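Protein Entry — a single chain follows
Next Lines — sequence and tokenised fold
***
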Amino acid sequence: MIRVFFRSLSLLLGSAFTGSVVIFILLRMVGGDIATVMLGTRATPEALASIREAFGLNRSWLEQYLSWISGVVTGDLGEAYTGQYVIATEIIQRLEPTLILTFGSLFIAIPIALVIGVYSAMNFKRWRGASVDGLAQVGLAIPQFFLALVLVLIFAVKLGWLPATGYVSIFDDPLVLCKAL
């Protein structure tokens, strides 16, 4: 059991390391100069050099990667080049709504999926089971971003049951869902 755990952990770390190297190299190969993006095409060479120095873009790729990965390991994800905000702070600010949406959707989806799955399994040789399976395939084929926009259009714009934009924390107003319905 412990051996399986360490093997899985080593595969996870190896995959994360390989993915980080590949993404880092691909982002550097895309081209473009972030200093030019920040200052514009009419920037002076001195200003461009100053920005490259400030962000460490004048160092080799290996030095840039090692600096970035050491920051990730210590929890320092750096600042956004164009927005001038701390990335870790932005992630933490968006963590609560993300977790509430994730676990809320799982809380709703798992019981529904279990009931539909049992119904489909019990009727697998009948047209009812085949139709449920067909609808499931259609549901998997629809891109999630498109489905989200359609649901916002239906429930927020047409029916007016839910707000189309904005976020109120469930910790600030526990009855926010009851008020929406």
The CA atoms of residues 38 and 54 lie 12 Å apart. The chain is about 70% helix and 0% strand.
